[in-house]
Amino acid sequence: MTENNKNQGFLGNLLSLPNDNPKKTIIVAALLCLVCSILVSTSAVIFKPQQQANKAADIKKNILAVTGLLTEDADVDTLFEQFEIKVVDLATGDYADIDPATYDQRKAAADPTQSIELPADQDIAGIGRRAKFATVYLLKDGDKAKQIVLPIHGYGLWSTLYGFISFEADFNTVGGLQFYAHAETPGLGGEVDNPKWRKQWQGKKAFNDKGELKIEVIRGHVDFKVAGAEHQIDGLSGATLTSRGVSNLVNYWLGKHGFGPYLKKMRAEVEK
Ligand SMILES: Cc1cc2nc3c(=O)[nH]c(=O)nc-3n(C[C@H](O)[C@H](O)[C@H](O)COP(=O)(O)O)c2cc1C
Predict the structure, then answer these.
(1) Nearest CA among 137, 138, 177 for reference residue 154
(2) d(Cα 114, Cα 127) in Å, to the nearest integer?
(3) The predicted structure's pLDDT at residue 13
(4) What end-to-end distance do the CA atoms of the chain give, in Å?
(5) Ligand 1, residues 159, 161, 188, 197: which to mutate, most atoms within 8 A of Cβ?
(6) % of the chain at pLDDT higher than 90
(7) What is the tens place of the pLDDT at every residue in 189-210?
(8) Distance (Å, rounded) from C-alpha 245 to C-alpha 254?
(9) Atom of ligand 1 nearest to the CA of 244
């Protein structure tokens, strides 16, 4: 080694090697990987709070959209203040003494201490387990709720669809349905986002006069001359499997293992 090389240090020595030297290739590639991974993990840490804020804002937007309150120039946070947020014990249908500001239903669903495993015969939504408690969003008119928004999720064809369903003050008439996350095929199952299809849900009755859950996405088109049409929504053409998934997940969440006990209590309260 010359006197000059000794003074160059590790990097200088490395760079002075010919480009086809295997040692140089391996060390440069390793250094490049190290620098890139530091960049990626640093940006993941730096942008995490922003990503979480964006996710929270998106959820608020979807809740406003499903109640018909979202306008283009809406101040989302101000509009969202109209909602009273509560946490429901799904087993009893009663409100739980849990702070909705800190409760995360999606996280709870993945935590075995805060969730229950669903037996196969109950798991029509294909979710495996669900949180014991669920967050509900009440749009109040004085003491009474004029609309309620419930979180729902379940399996379609390729993915779990996450969204919301809203009800009018009677806790039976659907106000809207909206998904904020799914990976169904655009143009097929992805048509769950089509405003025309979503509009069909408005005004449908989830329960019949006997309190039985009847809402369903049917195969084909609803025949309005036939009894029961008030509970039915057209299937998505070419996407029967996603349509069935949506029908199942809505039925799971409105049924006796989901919000059923809560909705029953709320309907009884309204009918008093
Ligand atoms: C690439 C590809 C993507 C598909 N994506 C969906 C989908 O997202 N949702 C769905 O229900 N069907 C999807 N299908 C169609 C299903 O395999 C199935 O044919 C369809 O759900 C049957 O609906 P139909 O009886 O209305 O034709 C897809 C098919 C292909 C080839």
Answers:
(1) 177
(2) 15
(3) 87
(4) 96
(5) 188
(6) 84
(7) 999 999 999 999 999 999 999 9
(8) 14
(9) 11
